Structure formats: structure tokens, C-alpha cells
Amino acid sequence: MKHLKRFAACCAAAVCCAAMLLLATGCQQQQESYTPPEATPSVSKPVIAQEGVLRVGVNANNAPLAGQPSSSTKIVGIDVDMAAALADQLGLKLEVVDVSTDAAGALTSGKVDVVMGVNKSDSPSFWTSDTYLPTAVALFAQSSNSTVPANSASTKIAAQVSSNSAWAVTNEFDNSTITTTEDLKSAFSALESGKVQYVAADAVVGSYVSNNAGMDVHMVALMQQASGYCVGVLDGNTQLKQAVSNALSAMNSNGVSSVIQKKWLGTAMDLSGIKLTAGASDDKDDMGEVLNSANAAIGTLTGNTGSSTNKADSDSKTSSADSASSSADSSSTGDSSASNGAASTASN
């Protein structure tokens, strides 16, 4: 009987030791962090200049595509997030480079491998991908059921002063239609208070500003045919062109592009179902002439010529968010300028 009790005690001790060993092993396994396997790069030198790194050029004075918060030297924005996703899709690390408005020069000199935020309607001298972010001069209203405005005395539209959106309004509607504001946020405030029925702004920038201000507004019409932002690559770099096209297609299919747009704009940007105003041109060449004329008119009104920054870029300095919004409405499609910024680099 004593031997039986001793045997039972030994068995119990063995079971306890095994349980403690399993518990300790489990805890150790839980403490180990998961390290995802490194992706295999889909391109390498000489397709890209630096092995394992995609150098992406952005215009850091073009919020919300790319900008620098006052509290940080890091460049952030839609283009930066898209660049990070693009590099990840290609199995590469990311280096973001501020090329200001000289995308062509940065590509030609080899400063970057690709550039972001290229407007398709500008007909650049290098290859451009399909658009990853559509845009146009748009009209915003408080109700999604608002009708496309007619050119009548009762129509009231607010727009940022000296912007291409403001010029587009005066080009299509009577002068009594427009109410100009010092910045785009003020234009949306006029809409919210009922002083105007619509706000004219770049579709991307208008969505960014209204979303940041917590305003519930809707795009109800486009004042021009939709264009969009693309990735630019030197035309002779066939392998990189194909790799970028494939990566963007995958990002659109898996929803990454939509997630990035929702983060910055509050919604995925889809202009396909939005109606055109009566004066919207269906000829991109005509619209290019319109925008060139608008830039010339803005330069005359503000005392600036050539590629100098117009007045709308220097207004609204009360906060970093307002400053970025004001600058963005003037430097995006339909509200363009050539703000010059010092080149800087930020690694993701």
C-alpha cells in the first residue's frame, strides 16, 4: 500500500512538472513578436537608382497631397501614404523627396525614381500612370439632392479669392453669382450659414477642408471634365513603368487606395456619377487653355507673373491646418500655382 501511494505521488509530481513546462513554453511563445517575411523586390538596379529603395518625389507645398505640419519636419499627405503603399507593393523601402514643382527636373536628373501628384491634364513630358486620385473643379452643397445650378440671379456661389475655382465661376456665371472669401474654410462657413448655396473648389482640396472642419457637404456638380493625379516615370524606363502600373492596379483592387482617401478626405473619391454644369468643357485642350488664362488673370490681379506664388497661397496663417488648406486650394487642379520650397528628404 505504501508503494502504491508513493507511485501515485510520483505520477502527480510528474504531471505537475509537465504542466508547468508547457505553461512556461506557451508564455515564452506568446512573448515572441511576429516578424513578417521580407517581400522580394520586384525591381532592382538599374531600374531604380538605389538597391532596395524607391525614391519618390512629391511637392511638399501641396496639401493634402503632401505637406509638412508646423510641429514636424516629416512630409505627410495622400501622396506620401500612396508612395508608402506603392513601395510596399514593389517590395522596397521608401524615401520621400520634396521636389517642389519640378517633377520633370527631378526625374531627368536622377534625383528620384518616380514622382507623385502629377496632373494628367497637364500633359507632362514624361510617362504617367492611370490616375490614382480623380479631381476637378467641383461645386459643393449642403444637400446631396441639390440641383446643378443654373446661371441666374438667385444662384450664389462662394470661392476662395484669386483661385482658379473663383475664375471658373465668373467665367460661367454672372458676376453677381460669386462671393469671394480669404480662404476655403470661410467659403464653407458661408455655405453652412446659408449665405451661399454652393462652394466652388478643387474636388480633393474641398473634400479635405470640409472633412477637417467637420462639415457635412456633398459634391453636386463638376465645372470641368474630371482629370486626376498620376505617378510619373521617365518614358524610357519600361520596366519601372510596368511595375508601377501593376502595383497601382493591385492597390485599387485590394482597397488600399480607398482606405488612404478615406483617411484624408473622409470618403473615397469617385467623380464618375457627378453631373457637369452647362459650361463644363468636354475638351481637355480647351480646359487647359481656360486654366492658363485663369493663371494669367490671377497673376494680373495679384501682381504676380510667371510661376510666382499667388495671393491665395499666402493667406490664412492662423493655424497650420488653415494654412495648409489655403495653400492647397491654390496649388491643386483648378487652383494651381507654383509655390517654391526647399528640397528636403524624409524616410518612411
Automatic annotation (TrEMBL):
It is found in: Cell envelope. The keyword Repressor does not apply. Transmembrane segments: none annotated. Residues 299-348 are annotated as: Disordered. InterPro entries: SBP_3_CS, Solute-binding_3/MltF_N. Keywords: Signal. CDD domains: PBP2_peptides_like (cd13530). Residues 53-268 form the Solute-binding protein family 3/N-terminal domain. SMART domains: PBPb. Its main location: other. One of its GO terms (cellular component) is cell envelope. Residues 1-24 form the signal peptide. It holds the Pfam family SBP_bac_3. Belongs to the bacterial solute-binding protein 3 family. This is ABC transporter substrate-binding protein. It comes from Senegalimassilia anaerobia.
